[in-house]
Amino acid sequence: RFLPISPSILDEVLAIARGIPNDGIRPGVLCLVAEHMAVADRIAVLFETFEDAKNIPDDDDREYALYAVAQSVPTEAPSLFEAVLEELPYVTSEHRCANALLALSRRIPVDHPGLRLRILEIALQLPYQEETGHIIGNVASDWAAASRVAGSTETALLADTLLAFAHVGRSELVGILRALTPLIKRLGGEIAVRGTADAIMDTAEWWP
After folding, report:
1. Predicted pLDDT at 10
2. pTM for this prediction
3. Are the C-beta atoms of residues 87 and 62 closer than 8 Å to each other?
């Protein structure tokens, strides 16, 4: 990352960053420069970087650019957050998509629960990734909001989420359950947590 940039040279640094010809480098540098700007200017530069990213012909460079924006988008820019989120299902690398989802899930705008639900939906559409548990754990920090947007109860949304992972291996599902343990405890108390743990132990011999 850059050292702090003096406001007096920020415009010059931004112009240099915009002029970088390498599609694999320019977006990340622009995102770094944007971090030194006031919020409104930062959002404008990130929108510019996002629009530029969509037109990058190389898949790897384009997807890295989307990831760079996902890491940088502030909570004050829900429209940019949503725009980046809606591009992620088209990312060819499932691992890169999961990384971008994880970055977004760490800074979900509080007053936009639909974005929380959309992150969950995309995560459930992906094959299991090592980031999946962390993404779902972040979404679960306001599960009630996500369930209201889904027109569901918290318990029903939890059941649907667990059902989506019925095909994964035991260790992968244990990771999901670990991320959801605070939610399971809140909805069902210690009895639900103990029952979940007992079920995992009961299936240990035959569940790979």
Report:
1. 87
2. 0.88
3. no
